[in-house]
Amino acid sequence: MINITQLSETIESIAYSIIFRYKDIFFGAFVAIFVGRRIIRISLGGRYSVRSLIFSPLLYLAFTGATYVGLTTVELLACSIAFALGLGLSSLFKGQVKFFEKKKILHYRRSPLIGLAWTIAFVVRIYLLIYYDVTAGFFLSIILSYLSGLILGEAFQIAIQKRMFEFSKKSRESAQISARNTDQDVNKE
Questions:
Q1: Where are the domains of the chain?
Q2: Residue range 104-122: mean pLDDT, rounded
Q3: 126, 143, 145: which is closest to 135 by C-alpha?
Q4: How far is CA 93 from CA 17, 61, 115, 151, in A?
Q5: Nearest Cα residue to 48 out of 110, 113, 107
Q6: CB 38 within 8 A of CB 117
Q7: Backbone phi, psi, residue 107, to 5°
Q8: I need a labelling partner for 174 at 20 to 30 A (CA). Which of 16, 23, 53, 85 fits?
Q9: How many Å apart are CA 142 and CA 139, to the nearest integer?
């Protein structure tokens, strides 16, 4: 009979030995892919979909949660407070969310400050984990928790801003239609 605990520990041990043996390559690839993707997404924006609005913050939360390994209960409580604070302060960044249309498809751009700050903090956290085996990075975990709260709150702000964008778009279209109708009425007289 296979012992599941022993098997998972063996797999974890093999994964860590591979990562640490090739840590320069792994970290370089991680930075190139992860940071490159984030920079492109922050600068160009992305296509709006409900899936991306939900999936992206959940992915940030999962990555942030992975940094909680090795933290004590008190440190986890501090991270929770930082997360709640970030969630509460996210409304300050609502003006940085921009909506636009490309080929009649709705796109949006998130706050570059929040995205870059979280990405830098996460890369530093991974760097410390790989090169210095610092598993209990309490300070960085608090920063990531705070920034994840901002990102989740920003997702709520994006949903609100999308409704406002659609409302203003419909208002502009209605104004254009009524202006055309008025022009047609004037021309008939």
A1: 17-166
A2: 82
A3: 126
A4: 42, 19, 12, 10
A5: 107
A6: no
A7: -125, 165
A8: 53
A9: 5
